[in-house]
Write a structure and sequence with these properties.
- It contains twelve helices and 24 strands.
- It has about 475 residues and is α+β, with helices and mostly antiparallel strands.
Length: about 475
């Protein structure tokens, strides 16, 4: 019998597969498409997941060997520029890498770790038993597994088969258009902004709101630039086209934007979407079936939080599910996946809905934006929003352990990125005198000079305990890991 079946070979499913493999579980990944997606979707990574990939040794696979993440000096929130360079602790990191490249890298890493990825395998049924789940496949033999994880997107078949409700709201009054384009190089400024005669400059990688809609300009390095618009109350029919995108930009700006077809290698994107969904699964687990990523939550793409949320779901779930499979899980450990990650999804839903509201046309929204713009002049407000967008404000309850760092994601420390690549629990001991006792087989210990306190890190890099003596250490270890 297979230990874990993951339905969906997107970034979230592949990340979970890698995490499970690092913990000694060999999952099988089922993907209904015979070949990897070639369509353009997410354009990069935003938030804490950038540093999480670095701590698994994966960041440099998407950039250059020897490179390390740097915080973004600026970002955007609700079509406001968000200046971050003056913050004392800027937690917002970005990485402009197309989703298909992220998927390719994670598939390569999963293969290195021995993960079995089976493409052309479509899940059509689940037969749940007390100790296993039988996965029924279209035109193929069923597979029996101890656990099944649905990482199969917002229309998740696994979620529906498991009978998990997906409450939320659907809006249908907006239309968004996105396409790869080319423009006159002379129209692009040194900072990447696009000059539009009769209007002015559209800043790069930032939503620009007018009284008629929303527009964004993305001059991706080494790729065709992208242009997106959002309008309300504008009907559309037929196949999306460059002419339609050009006309939409004219309505939003009140001026013509000289757009031409893309000139670089494909695949090229030209897409129209109506309305949007904000939904969170009623529960993330139904017995031996769990949900991950978009199968568990969908929301507006504004600000690009989707992969940050989903990939961190995978890192949270991976070590817990592996411990359950291996018989090393502390009591109730697997249930903490939902109790920790469901609130994280609610926060993303909250801020994406708030941002969407701030971008709508209308005088009342304009008044709200005037007030909000004043608040953004305060560093404390920008620090709060940076934490919200990055996910750095997420903290977890750690049982009896106390201390100012407990429950927080571990800060960047010298050498930490090398110590966390194995995805094992880690005790950072500045004195070299602490004793994990019967938990020693399951915990790596490292002497890190310069710390004024010892730290116990869970595999997802959240701090489960801090102290200077063994006091409380064994109790914290017992909360998260089984001894022996």
């Amino acid at each position: 019998m297979i230990e874990v079946v993951i339905a969906g070979a997107g970034p979230n499913g592949l990340m979970l597969a890698c995490e499970l493999a690092l913990a000694g579980v060999r999952p099988v990944v089922l993907e209904r498409f015979a070949e990897p997606h070639d369509a353009q979707r997410a354009n990069g990574l935003v938030g804490q997941v950038v540093r999480m990939l670095d701590r698994r040794g994966l960041y440099e696979r998407l950039t250059e060997p020897g490179t390390a993440p740097e915080p973004a000096p600026r970002f955007t929130f609700g079509a406001f520029p968000l200046h971050l360079s003056d913050l004392p602790d800027n937690p917002l990191y970005t990485l402009l890498v197309p989703q298909r490249r992220i998927e390719s890298m994670l598939a390569e890493r999963a293969a290195e770790l021995g993960v079995d990825i089976r493409r052309g395998h479509e899940v059509v049924g689940l037969a749940r038993g007390e100790k296993s789940v039988t996965v029924e496949l279209r035109e193929q033999e069923p597979i029996e597994a101890e656990f099944v994880v649905g990482a199969d997107g917002g229309r998740s078949v696994v979620r529906k088969l498991a009978g998990i409700a997906f409450p939320g709201v659907t809006t249908d009054d907006s239309v968004s258009r996105t396409g790869h384009v080319s423009v006159d190089p002379d129209a692009i400024g040194a900072d990447g902004g696009l000059t539009v005669p009769g209007f002015g400059v559209i800043p790069p990688f930032q939503h620009l709101r007018t009284e008629h809609g929303l527009i964004s300009w993305a001059p991706f390095p080494g790729r065709d630039p992208g242009l997106s618009t959002v309008e309300w109350g504008q009907p559309a029919e037929g196949e999306a086209s460059l002419d339609e995108l050009r006309a939409s930009a004219r309505r939003v700006l009140g001026a013509d934007v000289a757009l031409s077809p893309p000139t670089g290698p494909g695949p090229h994107l030209m897409r129209r979407l109506f309305g949007g969904n904000t939904r969170i699964a009623e529960r993330y687990r139904a017995g031996r079936v769990l949900l991950l990523g978009d199968a568990a939550h969908v929301h507006s793409a504004i600000g690009g939080p989707g992969l940050n949320l989903g990939l961190q779901d995978a890192v949270n779930l991976g070590w817990k599910l592996a411990a359950e499979v291996r018989g090393h899980a502390a009591e109730g450990l697997l249930d903490t996946y939902e109790s920790e990650r469901h609130p994280a999804a609610r926060r993303v839903a909250m801020h994406t809905q708030a941002q969407s509201l701030l971008t709508r046309p209308g005088g009342d929204v304009t008044a709200l934006r005037e007030l909000f713009g004043e608040l953004l002049g305060q560093p404390t407000t920008r620090q709060h929003i940076a934490g919200l967008l990055s996910g750095a404000d997420i903290t977890y309850a750690m049982g009896p352990a106390t201390g100012p760092l407990v429950g927080h994601w571990a800060p960047d420390l010298p050498g930490l990125r090398d110590l966390t690549r194995t995805a094992r629990p880690l005790l950072l001991d500045p004195t070299g005198t602490l004793d994990p006792g019967p938990w020693s087989p399951h915990v790596d210990t490292a002497t890190v000079p310069g710390l004024d306190t010892a730290l116990l890190l869970r595999p997802d890099c959240y701090i489960a305990w801090q102290g200077t003596t063994n006091d409380g250490l064994h109790e914290a270890l017992g909360t998260w890991f089984r001894a022996g």
